[in-house]
Amino acid sequence: MYCSRIPKNKKQELPFGSSWGAKKVPAGLSPLYKSIIDIFLVSSGTVWKTFFLLAAFFPLFTFANGGHAHDMTLPGVDASTAVEETSVREGLVVNMNVTPAQVFVHDAVRLDFFVNEKPGGVPVPFYDLDVEHAKLMHVVGVRNDLNEFRHIHPEPSPDNPAVFTIPHVFDQYDSYTFWSEISRGGTHFIFKHSEIDVGLTTETDPDQKTPDQTISLARNVIVGDYQIALTVPPRIAKGRTADFTFDVHTLVGDGVALEEYLGEPMHLVAIKDDLRQFLHAHPAEAHTHAINTLTPVAHAHGPTGDAPGYEPVNFHLAFPEAGFYKLFGQFRPQGVGLLADEALTSAFWIEVKDSTLTPVAERVILASVSLLLMAFLSYGVYRYIVRAA
Fold it and tell me: What domains, with CATH codes, occur in the chain?
């Protein structure tokens, strides 16, 4: 058999895939390209390859943790922007009036909501509105420190078909803010109303103090006989769709089945700490899109005493501003005998981070960073090989 001999004073150039013990890389290629090929193909470079891949693709993984780069308008989310009622000069509006004008804690008042068209204040009767989630009008109110929450449903007045009315009692002296929601012709409208200042009465303890706004990012709360867990993404970015999952259990850990509340298993309201942003969301229906279905959670401890029909509830939300938001999740445990309009409310704080880049721009930047890291590390390996040679 014929065998070629390699002179002792000549170093062999090893083919691709050989050990990094080679003193030279294949000829005919640029140094940068040769080093990139060697890093991925040589069998003895496991540590380098692992570090290389982690460093190169870590920015892309962190981008995924920031949420989906979807448009902010999603099935199940009332994406209408809340409009100050006093700013409407033309078109549909709801104007709120409080009787009596001077409001005191624990005193009964009447809240009236006048649906009309500007200019001119032309009345819009209730029968011109759409029924949405079993009601013609939804009203959400909070104390301005977000420590109180109300979801109420005024009814048309027998004296005026364009006025919705409801009695109300305020439990604390403080300022309160209300939003009303209506739909007409398939279009959803949200109106933010002027603050209501609630004062003290002579029967009220003058030393009574309103609690300060305290922000806690705890992910488990207890409401009555139930514990509610909220699962959120590691990072919630402004303008990015984020997934939120509510899981309702008994105090001993058994899953709780939910009955419908106003046509949905749960309602979710998100309000920014400065009251500048308001979102009202519902679980997306299974037929809208695969990512919007309810998502069962597997329990690591095996079979449980979960009630038949138990399912965690999933929401998808995108927030228009960075900052702290409080989420109010309303639900009705099955078979507890609540009144038709009643629900239990769980409350959680979340933090939304700022994001000054569009999804496309961020992807381009992160991909560029990955390529730069690849080039830098590859060149470093090439220099190491050259020095070793």
Answer: 81-203 (2.60.40.1930)
